[in-house]
Write a structure and sequence with these properties.
With 744 residues, the protein is of the alpha+beta class. The protein has 18 helices and 39 strands. β17 and β18 form a beta hairpin.
Length: 744
């Protein structure tokens, strides 16, 4: 009796150990029972196994002739370890893992169909691809199997994608992951295209693999040409060309070189014995990054034309892979429309159809080696300046050929209060006046956004630039343009002084001159930055924005007319003037037309609209005060508008505003008692008495007369009666000044 109990306990222990082994190795007990309940719509593997797919670091793929073993390193890069050492295609690894996780059962063939003939018919024996995925154990030790299955041939059925509009292909599949289950299943999705050229097609067709943000230097070397070197200090910084010239680089083109290198995709990946390479490469690209001193590089060999398809190719090699890449040098001539492009893309991309479609729609096109054949002139920036328009606080424009000068200063606005920045201008040492914001912003945008026509000359590193500047007239420039960036806003009180935590940036100066081109003898505009190493031939679209004429910068509003300050409005017709008195608080009007009271006839809505239009009236162009044509025409103006204002005295506030823009240090002598008495504060504890606001009367008079009637674009001459300033009004704006405000 004891012997029987001992035998039963031994058998139970053996069964328990066997079940534990299968659980540890395969993650399921179906290997013991030999059956897994498959139903349509179910995944092939349990939820526990699928949850471990992200940890899979070992894949084995077998067909009838070959076996490939792939592993993933600590950086997440897949490598083929057997039968050769090479990097695995990331798209192929992703396709296998995605298929394993996403495939769903469509149908299961009856057991009586699993004969040897049916196994050949469905491809699970004649063209099988057996895939095994393993993940490391939780507590170390050997890997355990997460999934295993054998792919057959493509199934003729299409399955619903689940969104009610798309269909996806299906494939025959059998899995022995569940022991004695010999059935053949039809499952969704199809990754057979990744094996269409044999298991060697699993080699990564991309020669280079890197993170663009880690790249700090690029060197382009071509046989018989000077090396081109680009550098930057960080991923956020701009690129600079350091050889063969010192110049700012075009950031988009420099970043485009990195993207093209990443997108290079070989038509075929060959073994070293399968391609005969020339002794020297025609072009070499080196990448230096944050990983260390050893650069990453790719060698490109001379182009050749294939006899079979007449395409132009290059061979390429990289040091860390014992492979030869057959790269296409240039794009094929487009044959076929959008549908053909979409169809070819879906057939060629070795990934799931829905992902292929998404990549084609996003314009993810391959790169070609000719896109890397860039010159220094193509890679350099063709901006005259990299200054941002909103990062400028002051501007000075002067000339070394005259005493004229223009000063521009920005009065910062308030974003929360919806107050815009306002530029002020001054001619020479004259007081500051409101400037035309659009003119200043157009100048700043033009410096950055209007490309130069060409690079006229470059100085070698360390070479004196004075002779080069003199050759283009920049030693006596027409314009000296100095730009001061915004000061540091982060400040601190240190030892009682208000100091910036970051050193304020210095002004940048640009020289602009009209001069004869030494190469052609033709006059053109040239410019360079003081301290720079290049002279540019400037586009006239930019030089038209620079001027020493005050009228260029003057605010285009005809007159400053605060509506709340309007007290009287007089419209001077030839027959009789219309005089209208305005009460802003009571929103009421009274008026006289000659000797007649027309108050009942005033249309209040038209009158107030007229005031708003007058307030927003802008000149088309300010004229020189001595313009003979305008003065002659305005001897007999046909119409005038006179606005009488009652304004609060804001001179002290205006002075404070400009003092903020141009701070001055003032000292005051005297004891505290003397200063207190001088301020009129005899009793510091008494209640202050509010002073009555001071006001003064001002008048704005606008006179207009038709201009040249023979012009294709009719206009009006205008004059401000108080200052004599002359201007031109558009025909439509001048017609609006003579609007009718009476209901007669």
């Amino acid at each position: 009796m004891h012997a029987i109990k001992t035998i039963l306990l031994a058998l139970l222990a053996a069964l328990t150990v066997t079940m534990g082994v299968f659980l540890a190795v395969d993650g399921n007990l179906s290997r013991i029972t030999g059956w897994y309940r498959f139903e349509p719509g179910m995944p092939l593997f349990s939820a526990g196994n699928l949850a471990q797919l992200e940890n899979v670091d070992w894949i084995r793929i077998r067909d009838l002739h070959d076996e490939i073993v792939c592993t993933r390193d600590e950086r997440g890069v897949w490598w083929i370890e057997k039968p050769f050492r090479d990097r695995m295609s990331a798209a192929a690894a992703e396709a296998i893992l995605t298929f394993t996780a996403k495939t769903r059962l469509v149908d299961t063939l009856p057991l009586n169909n699993t004969t040897r003939q049916s196994l050949r018919e469905f491809g699970v024996e004649t063209t099988p691809h057996t895939i095994t995925l393993k993940a490391p154990a939780h507590q170390g030790g050997k890997r355990h199997t997460v999934a295993r299955y054998t792919l057959g041939s493509t199934s003729p059925w299409m399955a619903d994608a689940g969104n009610g509009k798309d269909i996806i292909p299906t494939v025959y599949l059998r899995t022995d992951f569940y022991g004695r289950d010999k059935r053949i299943h039809v499952v969704t999705c199809n990754i057979l295209p990744i094996f269409k050229e044999g298991l060697e097609s699993l080699r990564d067709p991309h020669p280079l693999l890197f993170d663009p943000d880690t790249i700090l230097g690029i060197t382009l070397q071509r046989e018989g040409q000077q090396d081109i070197t680009l550098q930057r200090v960080s991923a956020e910084a701009d690129w600079a060309i350091t050889a063969p010239v010192l110049a700012a680089a075009d950031r988009d083109k420099a970043d485009g070189v990195l993207l093209d290198l990443l997108k290079l995709r070989a038509r075929r990946v060959l073994g070293p014995a399968d391609a005969k390479l020339p002794e020297k490469p025609e072009m070499r690209v080196q990448l230096r990054g944050s990983w260390g001193e050893q650069p990453m590089q790719i060698d490109l060999y001379p182009e050749f034309t294939a006899e079979d398809d007449k395409r132009t190719y290059r061979y390429a090699k990289v040091p860390d892979r014992d492979s030869v890449f057959l790269l296409q040098a240039c794009e094929d001539v487009q044959r076929g429309g959008t549908y053909a492009t979409l169809l070819n893309g879906m057939l060629e991309l070795p990934i799931l159809p829905e992902k292929a479609l998404a990549q084609i729609k996003s314009g993810n096109r391959p790169a070609y080696t000719r896109s890397l054949e860039l010159t220094a002139d193509e890679l350099r920036s063709h901006q005259f300046s990299d200054l941002a328009a909103n990062d400028v606080a002051r501007i000075s424009i002067r000339s070394l050929r005259s005493a004229d000068s223009i000063r521009l200063v920005k009065i910062p606005g308030n974003t929360e209060g919806a107050v815009n920045d306002q530029w002020m201008y001054a001619e020479g040492q004259q007081p500051f006046r409101k400037a035309e914001n659009n003119a200043v912003v157009s100048l700043l945008h033009g410096m950055r956004d209007i490309p130069v026509d060409a690079v006229a000359a470059d100085a070698k590193p360390g070479e004196d630039t004075a002779p080069m500047a003199a050759a283009y007239g920049l030693d006596t420039p027409n314009y000296v343009l100095s730009v001061l960036p915004n000061p540091c806003n982060v400040r601190a009180i240190i030892f009682g002084c208000d100091l910036p935590l970051v050193k304020d940036r210095e002004a940048r100066t640009f020289l602009i001159s009209r001069h004869a081109d030494p190469a052609t003898g033709k006059a053109a505009w040239f410019g360079m930055e003081l301290g720079g190493s290049s002279v540019f031939r400037l586009n006239t679209k930019f030089t038209r924005l620079v001027s020493l004429r005050p009228a260029k910068w003057k605010n285009r509003n005809v007159a400053e007319i605060p509506i709340s300050a309007v007290r009287r409005l007089t419209l001077g017709y030839k027959q009789a003037p219309l005089v209208m008195d305005y009460d802003h608080i009571g929103e009421s009007w009274t008026g006289r037309l000659g000797d007649k009271d027309v108050t009942p006839n005033i249309n209040i809505h038209r009158a107030e609209y007229y005031l708003r239009s007058l307030q927003q009236l802008k000149v088309a162009q300010w004229l020189d005060p001595t313009d003979e044509d305008a003065l002659k025409a305005l001897q007999n103006p046909v119409f005038s508008v006179k606005v009488e204002l009652e304004l609060a005295d804001t001179s002290a506030a205006d002075r404070a505003l400009m003092d903020d823009a141009h701070p001055q240090v003032e000292t005051t002598d005297g004891t505290p008692e003397e200063l207190l008495n001088a301020a009129g504060q005899e009793d510091p504890f008494s209640e202050p008495v509010a002073a009555a606001p001071k006001t003064h009367r001002e008048t704005r008079t606008i006179q207009i007369v038709p201009g040249d009637n023979t012009s294709d674009t009719p206009f009006f001459y205008g004059r401000l009666g108080e200052t004599g300033e002359l201007f031109i009004l558009r025909y439509e704006d001048a017609q609006g000044l003579a609007g009718d405000m009476l209901d007669l």
